[in-house]
Amino acid sequence: MKQNKRIPRISTRGFYDLNSGKTKKSKQYDLYPKKFFDELDVVPEITIMIHGLRNDQSGALTKFRIAKQRLTQLGYLHPVVGFSYDSNTRGVQYKSQEQKATNVGVLIAKKNGYNLSQFLINTKKRFPKLKIRLVGHSLGSQVIISTLEKLGSRKLVESVHIFGASIPSNLLSQQNKVNLLQKTISQKFVNYYSKSDLVLKYAYEQGLIPQPIGYGGIQGKSVPKYSQKHVRPQNHRFLSYAQVLKSFP
């Protein structure tokens, strides 16, 4: 299967209100182009990239292209798919509104766990031999965790890689989440974190989010499937994290 220059994507754009996080559409997801997703029987695996906060549709597509380019450079020759969701919440760029906008972003990310999990369930039912890997940046890590929660005991994910993740650092050491990793992931869960990530540092110190796992790593013990790597990207942007990625998967 040959990919077009435009990355195939799963989209829930317009499904959630950017001011409140309220659900606007009960639809599971949209697929572009649909033909690509009808032919997944000819590839052994795909990797789905989930972007972070403050990405409109154009910004999301840029992150997908960065992921595709970097993984190709590392020798990964399978399709890269984007998961595009309503993360460009209103007012996040203004200090007076950043807490509310962050909270709404987290709410929307959590709700998208349903949407992405439905894609995984539907796709694996149709193509049971297909391996699916997840890559998440920043708030995309919340989408991934919420997706795993919705999967329950279904082991449909081959591996997870998160970069500059905004989820709480104690989350993956809690017993219910430890069991979650065991039940839903076949291979591994890798956390790339950075103590020099000033965006996560600011968000933590300002109380916008609890201590993020992408800033200080995990608190407590997890499972053998979990590992973490401290990296030194130039900044919080996904482009910087992609540049310090040395191997995949």
UniProtKB/TrEMBL annotation:
InterPro entries: AB_hydrolase_fold, DUF726. It is found in: Membrane. PANTHER family: TRANSMEMBRANE AND COILED-COIL DOMAIN-CONTAINING PROTEIN 4 (PTHR17920:SF3), TRANSMEMBRANE AND COILED-COIL DOMAIN-CONTAINING PROTEIN 4 TMCO4 (PTHR17920). It is a multi-pass membrane protein. It comes from Candidatus Nitrosotenuis cloacae. Its main location: membrane. GO terms for cellular component: membrane. This is DUF726 domain-containing protein. Keywords: Membrane, Transmembrane, Transmembrane helix. It holds the Pfam family DUF726.
